[in-house]
Structure to design on (313 residues):
C-alpha cells in the first residue's frame, strides 16, 4: 500500500507539473503576430532618429550606426520590421513584443552604402508606413568615395576600370566583359556595332557600363560621345554606373539632355588586335539618378579621370 501511495503521489505531482508547464507555454503564444501602428492618434509618424555616421564603401557597425523607431504595439507577438533597399543599404529588426503600448526598436543596417547621397527609406508595420532620411558621407581613402590621395588619377591597370567625381567619389573595380556585337534591328539587319565594356566593383553591388557605337566590327581608336546615335536613333553611346540588382542608375549619360553640358566623352586610346588589349579614358557630365533626360539641372555630376584597360573577348 505504501508503495502504491508513493507511486500515486509521484504520478499526480508529474501531472500537475506538466499541466502548469503547458499552461505557461500556451500563455506565451510565440506564434502570434504583433499588431500596432507607426502613427500617433493624429495619424502622424511616431518619432525616429538616425544614430552614427554612414560612409560610402564602409560597412556600418550595427551597435553604433542604426535607426531608432517608435512603435505603438496594440497586440503582443513576434515582429519583423524592415525598410526598402536604397543606395546599397537596408535596415531591419525582428523580435517579440511582450507588452502593448509605445516601445522603441533599433533598425540595424544591412549592406554597404555605395555613393555619398541622401536617401529616403520607407518602413512599414501592420499596414502603416513611415519614412526617414539617411545621409551617407564621403569616406576617405581610395575606392571608398574620398579624395584621391594615393595616385589613382593614373590610368587603370590591366583588367581594371576607375573613375572619380567632382564630389570626391572614387570608384574602381575589375572588368568583367569587353566585347563587340552587332546592333541588330527588328528586321534582322545590322545597324552598326557596339563595343561594350562592363565592369564590377569589388563588392559586386554595382556596375560600370560603357556602350560605344562603332561603324564596323573593328575597334577603332578615337573619341566618341554620349550624344552619338546610330542611324535610326535606337542606340546611343552610353555611360552608366548602376546597382547590379537592376535598380535605377546612380549616374547616367546617353542622348541629348535638356540640361546643357550633359555629355560624357569616351576615348579609345589603343587597341592591339593580336592580344585583344584595349585601353581608353572617359570624362564629362552625367545625370544623377534615374532621370535619363536630365530635366533637373541640380542633379548632375562631373565624371573625371575615368579609364579602362581590358581584353576583348
Amino acid at each position: 500500500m505504501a508503495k502504491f501511495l508513493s507511486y500515486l503521489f509521484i504520478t499526480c505531482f508529474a501531472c500537475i507539473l506538466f499541466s502548469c508547464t503547458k499552461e505557461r507555454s500556451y500563455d506565451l503564444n510565440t506564434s502570434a503576430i504583433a499588431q500596432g501602428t507607426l502613427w500617433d492618434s493624429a495619424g502622424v509618424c511616431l518619432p525616429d532618429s538616425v544614430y552614427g555616421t554612414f560612409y560610402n564603401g564602409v560597412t556600418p557597425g550595427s551597435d553604433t550606426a542604426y535607426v531608432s523607431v517608435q512603435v505603438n504595439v496594440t497586440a503582443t507577438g513576434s515582429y519583423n520590421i524592415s525598410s526598402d533597399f536604397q543606395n546599397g543599404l537596408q535596415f531591419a529588426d525582428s523580435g517579440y513584443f511582450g507588452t502593448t503600448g509605445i516601445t522603441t526598436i533599433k533598425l540595424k543596417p544591412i549592406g554597404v552604402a555605395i555613393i555619398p547621397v541622401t536617401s529616403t527609406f520607407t518602413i512599414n508595420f501592420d499596414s502603416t508606413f513611415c519614412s526617414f532620411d539617411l545621409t551617407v558621407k564621403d569616406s576617405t581613402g581610395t575606392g571608398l568615395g574620398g579624395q584621391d590621395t594615393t595616385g589613382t588619377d593614373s590610368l587603370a591597370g590591366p583588367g581594371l576600370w576607375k573613375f572619380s567625381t567632382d564630389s570626391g567619389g572614387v570608384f574602381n573595380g575589375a572588368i568583367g566583359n569587353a566585347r563587340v556585337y552587332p546592333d541588330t534591328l527588328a528586321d534582322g539587319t545590322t545597324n552598326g556595332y557596339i563595343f561594350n565594356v562592363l565592369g564590377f566593383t569589388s563588392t559586386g553591388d554595382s556596375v560600370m557600363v560603357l556602350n560605344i557605337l562603332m561603324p564596323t566590327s573593328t575597334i577603332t581608336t578615337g573619341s566618341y560621345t554620349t550624344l552619338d546615335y546610330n542611324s535610326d536613333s535606337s542606340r546611343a553611346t552610353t555611360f552608366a554606373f548602376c546597382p547590379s540588382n537592376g535598380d535605377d542608375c546612380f549616374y547616367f549619360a546617353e542622348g541629348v539632355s535638356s540640361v546643357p553640358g550633359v555629355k560624357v566623352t569616351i576615348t579609345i586610346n589603343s587597341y592591339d588586335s593580336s592580344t585583344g588589349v584595349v585601353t581608353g579614358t572617359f570624362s564629362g557630365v552625367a545625370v544623377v539618378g534615374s532621370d535619363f533626360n536630365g530635366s533637373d539641372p541640380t542633379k548632375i555630376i562631373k565624371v573625371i579621370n575615368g579609364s579602362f584597360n581590358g581584353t576583348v573577348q
Residues 1-27, 140-152 have pLDDT under 50 and may be disordered. The first helix runs from residue 2 to 28.
